[in-house]
Design brief:
alpha/beta; 4-stranded mixed sheet
Amino acid sequence: MNASDLQQKARDHLWLHFTRMSGYADADIPIIVRGDGCYLEDSNGKRYLDALAGLFAVNVGYGFGDEIGQAAHDQMKELPFYTNWSYAHPRAIELAAEVAELAPGELNRVFFCSGGSEAVESAWKLARQHYAARGENTRAEAAKRMIAGGRIEEQPAHERRWKAISRNVAYHGTTMGALSINGIPALRTPFEPLVPEVAHVRNTNRYHRPAEETEEQFTAMLLEDLQNAIEALGPETVAMVIMEPVQNAGGAFTPPEGYWRGVRELCDRYEILLCADEVITGFGRLGHWFGSERYDIRPDIVTMAKGLSSAHAAIGGVIATDRVMEPFLQGSTMYSHGITFGGHPVMAAIALKNIEIMKRERIVEHVKSNEDRFRDTLAQLLDLPIAGDLRGTGFFYALELVKDKETRETFSDEECEWLLRGFLSKRLFEAGLICRADDRGDPVIQISPPLVAGQDEFDKIASILGEVLSEAWAELEKGRGKALAKA
Ligand SMILES: Cc1ncc(COP(=O)(O)O)c(C=O)c1O
């Protein structure tokens, strides 16, 4: 199909996700036709540097399609599909073992699904059922002892827990459970009432905190907020606290010193399961296989998707510790959850090949040894009047845009609308750079290239961003000039 046929059929039939379709009434839908390394090409033959790795997902970049495709082809010939409902097959077993090997601590049990939202959904259901299963098992034990010893045991105290706690502005997916966990009001509101009951606590955005606040005070304030939320919900009803090692939405919020230790302590104190949502941070993005390792988070549950297969397959999953799994290994208890394509053999074969490539090419090590260079290159942008803050780590950064660097004043809603959607998204794309201008929190540019990016790509990202952000500032100044003249 030629470029204009594709364009017409896209307009007539394809429904783009999270996209104002009216925006394409008079403009062409961007159609990406191929990729190589960190670059993409559109249907008109124009090249782009993909500084977003698909959607924080194509960790090995676009250069391993042949090899990964061969693995998929081999698996198609051997066993194109079988299910994980009551059955195993070699690729799901091998992938579960490989992931358990890479994951830190006692994270040894893997439940596969098809993506990140399903992973978050599965984690919440798992946490809920973990407590119910513990209660049931305790009761079954008690009944046995009662029969043996002839005395009545007390009912176990906490048999059911269902609530979850996540953070403001955090994105955790779009299915109803995952959406309820989401901390982004604009995404939640159209679908209310959502799944009860989730509380949202403060995230680790430090940029707009009082200048005199120390890191220690900041951490203490965040932990107090979490503790208050737990107490307000009733600790005996809370099943799970779910947070990303570095929060993406809002702009790469890294944790302050002592934060994760404190979160872990609170979860231990109130016996709440801690889930690290590693849909983005897993598989090398932070220079470790898992962000949980980098920050010593010690989660009970991990969610993963995107980088597990470098987005070459629709596969995600939940990793649980032995302790979380334990009640499900007893009696008639089972995790009452399943998805037809969970652990799909072709998807699993692709993920296995992806991990093999990541190990062979030392991609995680590459991120670790280049993260400082990447940050230093991006930090040059802080000379621009519009660039307020650069946050992040590994190959995962956000640049916060401000109206006034001194006061850290942010843009109004109308200014954001013009700046991000009216100007930056279009101009960056025209200039050959794919990254994301996002205002789910304060306005930021998100930068998250394939993990094979090197200094050439770092320079190109900084140079295009520098040019386009300078143009945006000049336009804003012009606008302000005009407004002043009118006044
Ligand atoms: C942290 C996090 N969790 C969950 C999801 C949902 O993943 P998916 O889009 O694969 O459903 C995302 C997607 O970006 C994410 O960033």
